[in-house]
Design a protein that fits this description.
With 101 residues, the chain is an all-alpha fold. It contains 5 helices and no strands. Helix 1 packs across helix 4.
Length: 101
């Protein structure tokens, strides 16, 4: 028998999201999905710094990709989970959301 737990979230995740993903949203997702607390202003100032410097590993980034796919109701490209920096990740995700590609 497997234990299936449903996690319900309030706020923007409850409804389908639209628009670009902000640095503040990424910082919140890092905390919610990977347990990595980072100040949004620090993340913005160091957007070219590798994720691992902030303590986020590839599994944490995969969790963020999954959450964003749920929120936006669409798949993100495979290379989204391979991005090394917040800037590269946000560029990849937001370009995909803007173009529908």
């Amino acid at each position: 028998m497997t234990d299936q737990t449903t996690v319900q979230t309030a706020g923007p995740a409850a409804a389908q999201a639209t628009g670009p993903v902000s640095v503040a949203e990424l910082a919140a997702l890092m905390r919610q999905t990977a347990g990595v607390a980072v100040d949004p202003d620090d993340l913005a100032a160091r957007a070219a710094t590798p994720f691992d410097t902030f303590g986020l590993d590839s599994l944490g980034l995969l969790g963020i990709v999954g959450e964003l796919e749920k929120r936006h109701g669409r798949d993100l490209p495979d290379n989204a989970e391979q991005c090394k920096t917040p800037r590269a990740f946000l560029d990849c995700v937001n370009n995909t959301l803007a173009t529908g590609a």
